[in-house]
Amino acid sequence: MEPVFYELTKLAQNDQYTTYEMFFGPNHPGMHGNFGYVVEAVGATVVKVRVNAGLLHRGFEKLMETKGWFQNLSLIPRICVVDPDPNEVAYCMAAERLCGMEIPEKAKYLRSLTLEMSRLTSLLMGMGALGAMMGLYSSMYRMMTDRDYVLDLFEWLTGARIYHIYNVPGGVRRDIPDGFLAKLTEVLDTLEYNLKEWDNLVFENPVVHKRLTGIGYITAEEAVHYGLVGPNLRATGFLADVRKDDPYAAYPYLDFETPVTHGGDALARAVQVRKEYEMSIKLVRQIIKKMPKSKEIRLKAGNTLKFVVPPGDTYARVESSKGEYGYYVVSDGGLKPYRVSVRGPSLPAGLTLCHKHLPGMDISDVAIWMASYAVCPPDIDR
Predict the structure, then answer these.
(1) DSSP E strand boundaries for 15-151
(2) Could you give the CA distance from residue 173 to residue 211 in angstroms, rounded to a whole number?
């Protein structure tokens, strides 16, 4: 134990003012939404942490039992605001499996397209936020600019920038407009060109390497034990990707290899996200080239307010920007889901690992730890 920290600890045993509380979120930009951590610190060292769920995004699972199958489509994207489309696709896949539906081939490609576009927007926000936590606000501003290019395309395709409500049971709501794929290709060119700037600004920055090395280190065995998924798991060298392990939508028709990074700390997680961002750009390019010419994008569902799903239960999962995103859905044959349970990827790091990693950490590293795990609070407090 460091001498200064030791002395402060001895003082804290007799002086209630030596140990103090500090709030990270919602007032601190390190965590978005009402979610946050209340840390107890002695000097500049964290000694205890407790989670403050915030109760902003809550009760989604119970609310879904009160709404029709199609009505829930306007609710579920809010479970993860920064990456909403995986909620739509996983929910629709569950309903389709219970109904025995096989959606049109073009709808499969359009689903993969929206998933990868959503992934790009989420990874851009995540990379920018991690830079901002180290004082690199230029990276946040520039990456949010690139994110807006993709959101413009979402608005053109779906009519909305954030909550797209584009995927529906049986397919997708509308076909791609004329000129959309050409504009998307231009945006991809811009994103790829700007990767050189991101590398110079963030990923090859010696200050970034020094600040991230060793923060929140976890082994592959620990990651599996705690249930980490997605880039956080792959940053420990463990390869698992739902798009490969349990293919869905158009992913069986695409050629890609998911990268992994060995290291298990905040730097490895940052590098892994950088690799996956580039991979998503390549996947979108493949989707553009292979997009079917057919006009069939949706099966007929009849009156959506009277849409029923046969009795049964199923689990459908997709690979979001943060890892496996799953919906366990139970139907009693009625107009509404009987039960819905959401498997969000942020719970292991957001609720469990914080108690292991944050004690003993310097206060200045807490926000970096939160950003490196890319915790999305609503998929915990759902």
Answers:
(1) 19-24, 36-42, 45-52
(2) 45
> 73: which DSSP letter?
G
| pTM for this model (two decimals) | 0.90
H-helix or E-strand containing 194? helix 180-198
Other beta carbons within 10 angstroms of residue 148's beta carbon come to: 13
Q: Burial, 200: exposed, middle or buried (Cβ in 10 Å; 0-12, 13-18, 19+)? A: exposed
CB atoms within 10 A of CB 179: 9
Going from the C-alpha of 150 to that of each of 1, 22, 104, 166, 287, the distances in angstroms are 49, 36, 25, 15, 16
Of 15-29, 122-136, 308-322, minimum mean pLDDT range: 15-29
Dist CA 104 CA 298 (whole Å)? 6
The tokens of 318 are what? 């997709």
Cβ atoms 61, 382 nearer than 8 A: yes
What mean pLDDT comes out for the span 342-347?
87
Q: Tokens for 141?
A: 């501003």
Contact in structure between 40 and 25 (CB atoms under 8 Å): no
Contacts of residue 192, defined as CB under 8 A and 6 or more positions apart, other chains included, come to: 278, 281
| d(C-alpha 376, C-alpha 322), whole Å | 8
Q: Any idea what DSSP says for residue 113?
A: H
Tokens of 287: 């989707």
Sketch out the chain's domains with CATH numbers. 3-52 (no CATH), 60-345 (1.10.645.10)
The 10s digit of each residue's pLDDT in 158-189 is 999 989 999 999 999 999 999 999 999 999 99
Strand partners, 315: 328
Q: Which two tokens stand for residue 238?
A: 């463990």
Token readout for 3 is 């001498």
